[in-house]
Amino acid sequence: MIFAAILAGGIGSRMGGTDTPKQFLTLGNKPVIIHTIEKFVINEKIDKIIVLTPKNFINHTNHLIEEYILYKDDIIVIEGGRTRNDTLMNGIDYINEHYGIDEDSIILTHDSVRPFVTHRIIEDNIDAAKKYGACDTVIPATDTIVESINGKTIESIPVRDYYYQGQTPQSFNIKKLFNLINSLTEEESNILTDACKIFALKDEDVYLVEGELTNIKITYPYDLKLANTILEDIHD
After folding, report:
1. Distance CA 81, CA 54 (A)
2. The domain that contains 154 carries what CATH number?
3. Under 8 Å between Cβ of 80 and 52
4. What PANTHER family is this protein classified in (predicted)?
5. How many angstroms separate the Cα of 224 from the Cα of each of 37, 67, 181, 208?
6. Helix 119-132 vs helix 32-41: angle between axes, to the nearest 10 degrees?
7. CB of 71 closer than 8 Å to CB of 63
8. How many CB atoms within 10 Å of residue 221?
9. Predicted pLDDT of residue 184
């Protein structure tokens, strides 16, 4: 089976001026998270969509899905975790308990606040995860990358040609991901906040899927303004 995990566990502390998590803010005429879920609902290859939210937003999320999404039978809303990895494990545990995990099971993990993920990106993630076992959506770095250890002076300026900016989805063979997460030491678990980093730490290859400049993550107030502009361009 192919699963999509929409990671909506954040509280949006960097958005400022609102107590509402950023994934529930309005973009155009509906919440950001609904725009995101819709991109996965229309993909016929995805069997189940698992939305992971803070516990106190589960009912609210279900109400939004009822209100906005026509084909909602394959969407399940469950509680996320304290960290991104905890949230991901909650999703994997749910899949294992209710559907089982076989050698071919695939999971696409996606930020709920990236509402402009394209059908092509999703398709490429499915194909790469099936073929390679792990993939990450990226775009080439366009700005000069500066490394500073102390946050005050430049340590190095790497060659930009070799660097990419990470997006999502990040997609995996579920059994492989599950086994790697369970092999982490407590120290490793505490410092790893990204599933692809787990593969890298364990010397497992993660293949690149080409992203899009418009596949932005809504983190700050400016991002929401930009997202509304992108949405207007799409509808024109």
Report:
1. 8
2. 3.90.550.10
3. yes
4. 2-C-METHYL-D-ERYTHRITOL 4-PHOSPHATE CYTIDYLYLTRANSFERASE, CHLOROPLASTIC, RIBITOL-5-PHOSPHATE CYTIDYLYLTRANSFERASE
5. 17, 22, 33, 27
6. 60
7. no
8. 15
9. 84
Contacting residues for 126 by C-beta, under 8 A, at least 6 apart: 2, 45, 46, 106, 108, 171
Q: Quickly list H helices, the chain.
A: 32-41, 58-68, 84-98, 119-132, 174-182, 186-191, 195-201, 221-235
Q: What angle do the packed helices 174-182 and 84-98 form, to 10 degrees?
A: 120
CA distance 80 to 6: 10
What count of other Cβ atoms lies within 10 Å of the Cβ of residue 89? 17
Helix axes 32-41, 58-68, angle to 10 degrees: 60
Count of domains observed in the chain: 1
> pLDDT at position 188, please?
81
Give me the pLDDT at residue 18, please. Answer: 64
Q: What is the pLDDT of residue 14?
A: 54
Residue pLDDT, tens place only, 129-154: 999 999 999 999 999 999 999 999 99
> So what's the pLDDT on residue 236?
66
pLDDT of residue 182: 85
Which structural domain, as residue segments, surrounds residue 147? 2-235
